[in-house]
Design a protein that fits this description.
The complex is a heterodimer of chains A (396) and B (66). By secondary structure, chain A is α/β, with parallel strands linked by helices. Chain A has twelve helices and 13 strands. Chain A has a five-stranded mixed barrel with strand order 1-2-3-5-4. Chain B has a domain of 44 residues. Classes of the chains: A alpha/beta (396), B mainly alpha (66).
Chain lengths: 396, 66
């Protein structure tokens, strides 16, 4: 009786009771992850999604807004939902779902194919929309978990291959239910600022389940809508996500993305050497060619100068030039006459001529006892002077 | 564009252009020596950059989980 009285004193209205239960549930189970098979899936008024989540023995009702349904669902798919347990105002128990993702190979594949078909039809993966990566990359945005091995590989490779880049890293989750929204926020961050030339979304290898966040519809749409070109390096070579299809460039792994984004230092050094050798060889060849060409060019230039400048100048000043030429001619002739006279005089004065006539030439100091040289036509004679007499002109 | 502000890639492109000049119709023997010296200087600068330039990695302070 007493216990009943206590209860009476704490009596709730139905609304109060439901509110208290919901508060308790929220405290105890918020949020809760539940995995099961989808049944009785339906969408009402294009906004509200209802389905049951069941296993072999039990079933629980689920409710969510269509906006939060980021992967396609259908009956039979196995999914994990993140939800808050609630009593509705009609007293019906249900899970209010804020995130859902398929689990298990079959469901993942099914969801992937359904969304791929839908987005392909919308043209999100159209190859014509793909943009090339800039060849001169200096500012790069990276979206990844800084704890992930794939990220470490990426940084190691870009540092080994290239330098001079500013790399801004947005640290986000890259698996799990929260990953898509965090990656979307990072994409918006880079796009709003417009400071980077390329955004790289990176994640190393993992299970299909781990990588399923890259098949999130909102994320795929955000990648496709990015104003800044996006490259993805997600998982391994064989893993293909819808994020890869929406990106401008798909690299098979984070390491491959690093290689696609950067030049190779060693290769560039070798190219540099080849370029300088080419320049040197060309320079030498050009110089040699110029040497060969110059002779012909000089001839051609002389002719063209004559035709172009000298001949017209002559025509215009013919009279003056004629007078000048006459004066030069007269002067030359006068000089030639002088030279001729001197030549004739030289002939007359030529000692050889005197010797031929039988005379001799005496050279040396003329004094008694001196040795002198006597030159005849055919001989040079040394002689000593014994005595010197005054010559009388009449004796000859 | 001044060399101070040129990125490594821009410098390499510039050098490619300078080398191509030696094969182009613009080639002038009287400019060749200075052009060659210019190219050698740029090549040395690029080599230095290639060997010394580091990437600047910045982890953003922004919390993307909120």
């Amino acid at each position: 009786m007493k216990r009943f009285e206590v209860k009476m004193q704490n009596s709730f209205s139905p609304t109060e009771f439901i509110a208290v239960v919901n508060q308790t549930l929220e405290y105890a189970y918020s949020p809760v992850l539940v995995t099961g098979e989808v049944a009785s899936f339906k969408v009402n008024q294009g906004k509200w999604v209802f389905f049951d989540l069941k296993d072999e023995e039990s079933s629980v009702s689920c409710f969510m807004v269509l906006w939060n349904m980021r992967v396609p669902l259908e009956d039979g798919m196995k999914v994990t939902v993140r939800a808050v347990p609630k009593l509705t105002k009609w007293g019906k128990f249900s899970l209010t779902v804020d995130a859902v993702r398929p689990v298990g190979e079959g469901s993942l594949k099914k969801a992937y194919e359904m969304l791929k078909k839908k987005l392909t039809a919308e043209g999100l993966f159209d190859p014509a929309k793909k943009r090339p990566l800039p060849t001169d990359l200096t500012r790069l945005g990276v979206i990844s978990s800084t704890q992930a091995a794939g990220y470490a590989d990426f940084i190691k490779i870009i540092n080994a291959r290239w330098g001079g880049m500013k790399v801004s890293v947005a640290h986000t989750q890259v698996q799990g239910m929260d990953a898509p929204d965090q990656i979307i926020k990072a994409l918006k961050y880079f796009n709003e600022r417009g400071e980077v030339q390329v955004i790289a979304i990176l994640r190393g290898g993992g299970s299909a389940d781990d990588l399923s966040c890259f098949n999130d519809e909102a994320l795929v749409r955000e990648i496709a809508a990015s104003r800044i070109p996006v490259i993805t390096g997600i998982g391994h070579e064989v893993d293909e996500s819808l994020a890869d299809l929406a990106a401008d460039v798909r690299a098979s792994t984070p390491s491959n993305a690093a290689e696609m984004l950067t030049h190779d230092r060693a290769e560039e050094l070798a190219k540099l050497e080849r370029a300088m050798n080419r320049a040197k060889q060309s320079l030498l060849a050009r110089v040699e060619q110029a040497r060969v060409d110059n002779r012909n060019k000089v001839g051609n230039i002389s002719n063209s100068l004559l035709t172009k400048y000298v001949e017209p100048m002559f025509a215009a000043n013919r009279e003056k030039i004629s007078k000048v030429l006459t004066r030069i001619q007269d002067e030359l002739e006068r000089k030639a006459t002088l030279v001729r006279h001197k030549q004739e005089l030289l002939v007359v004065l030529n000692p050889e001529k005197v010797l031929r006539q039988g005379y001799a030439i005496l050279s040396g100091k003329i004094s008694p006892g001196s040795v002198v040289k006597i030159t005849t036509l055919k001989q040079d004679i040394k002689a000593e002077i014994k005595e010197i007499y005054e010559r009388r002109e009449n004796e000859s | 564009m001044s060399e101070e502000k040129m990125s490594l890639n821009q410098k390499i492109e510039e050098l490619d252009g300078q080398v191509e000049w030696f094969y182009s119709d613009d080639f002038k023997l009287e400019d060749a020596t200075s052009k060659y010296k210019e190219a050698v200087k740029l090549a040395k600068e690029i080599e230095k950059d290639l060997n010394e330039l580091k990437n600047e990695i910045e982890i953003l302070a922004e919390d993307f989980s909120k």
